[in-house]
Amino acid sequence: MTTLTITATTSPPDSSALRTDIRRLGDLLGATLVRQQGPELLDLVEEVRWLTRTDDQAAAALLEETDLDSAVHLVRAFATYFHLANIAEQVDRARQIDLRRRDGSVLAHTADRLADADPQHLAEAVAALAVRPVFTAHPTEAARRTVLNKLRRIAELLEEGQCTQARTDRQLAEAIDLLWQTDEIRATRPEPADEARNAVYYLDELYRSTVPAVLADLTAELARIGVELPDTARPLAFGTWIGGDRDGNPNVTPEVTRQVLRLQHEYGIKGALRITEQLRATLSSSDRLSAAGPELLDSLAADLAALPELDPRHLRLNAQEPYRLKATCIRQKLLHTAERLSTGSPHTPGRDYLGTGELIADLVLIQDSLRSHRGELIADGSVAQAIAAVRAFGLQLATLDIREHAEAHHQTLDRLYGGTYAGLTREQRQQLLAGELRSRRPLSGVATEPDRTLGTFHTIREIGETYGPEVVESYIISMCQGADDVFAATVLAREAGLIDLH
Q1: pLDDT for position 5
Q2: Is the pTM of this model over 0.85?
Q3: Computed from CA positions of residues 246, 251, 253, 257, in that sequence, does the dihedral angle turn out positive or negative?
Q4: Are residues 117 and 226 in contact, defined by beta-carbon separation less than 8 angstroms?
Q5: With the CA atoms of 445, 447, 451 and 454 taken in that order, what torsion angle do they form, in degrees rounded to the nearest 10?
């Protein structure tokens, strides 16, 4: 078999395992090129690789003579190689991190450095800790989810280790063949919803394992140095501009925003259901051995009355297990929430959730009752971890930020004022809008046709009514240069019923 040995232009890898993985994937890719396109392509790749290292002019002449189809295959061969090399590097990086963790994790080392800090100051800082990575909107860079899945599969096979090489080489070869046969880019321009699916891919993976583990480690390391993470803390959350970034993108309409939020909630609720199922399997405490608090029992009674469709089998088998029954009710309300959002039905208190706050309130009832009835370890273990994960992702996975250019607000106000606004100076605008904010008179009644920017604020209000108040928390004014830019957005928010200064 001819071997594909492309050399990356980065510094040589330090890890022998990394070099072995790159060589292994290069061999398998070479076999893929022969199977899929014939030995001529592999020969061309090898020739180009050699000439680019030894004779630039000869390489340029060869590329100039290459026909279009061959050039496309050549580019794809090199691009696929670098995809595979990147995956091998990521796997090796994970190996190196695992080795370093034998001497303590990054969080452990950080906690050690904080151990001598002022306890009061440290406790206040920990209580205020709030990290929020944000997925920004770059639709032209959205990778196809099917490509991401195939690269992930290759990474998983590499992680199985060298001892299984004979068994996994066949699977790796199949994955690389599929990668070669898959279009890396879509035939049509990706839409905001496509980009949202790409972000959801990463968020869902983070929700499944990484973030709950990180939050559990954070809590444990802080406790080790005598610092308690408050129950209400939300040290990690996620944000996104996808579906909310209107600055310069006319494709982000109110309907697109609703579509993206439906998608995020579909996966966010699935994540909450996974956590709830774990709690149902864990919370087997019997009231014959450990009592439950009156608040939990009252809440459970209300749930059972509001959810008569619960499987009688659960009611019979778990009759003495109030925590498990409560988790069953939470699951049913999550299912109703998913159904309500998919059908556009109104919220029914007691049968579904309007926002993450109501879900967390139910989980906190379980936690408080366990703490009061010799279940402190359970409350501060499995239940606390579940609450922390739900706080991080909510039912929406990530908080949606709305972003609009400052000038768009002024253009809308000019239409609302009948064309008399555009000629004002910044100082005049500021005085006029400050007066509007002090008054109660509506402006939007003057308009004769729907306005896109004002419609955005109405959409934000509808989102809050449908999904809960935490789904949209920030409105970003891009190119903001003065107080009048802030006042303009505030007046429009007031028009939509989002703000009432009185």
Answers
A1: 47
A2: no
A3: negative
A4: no
A5: -30
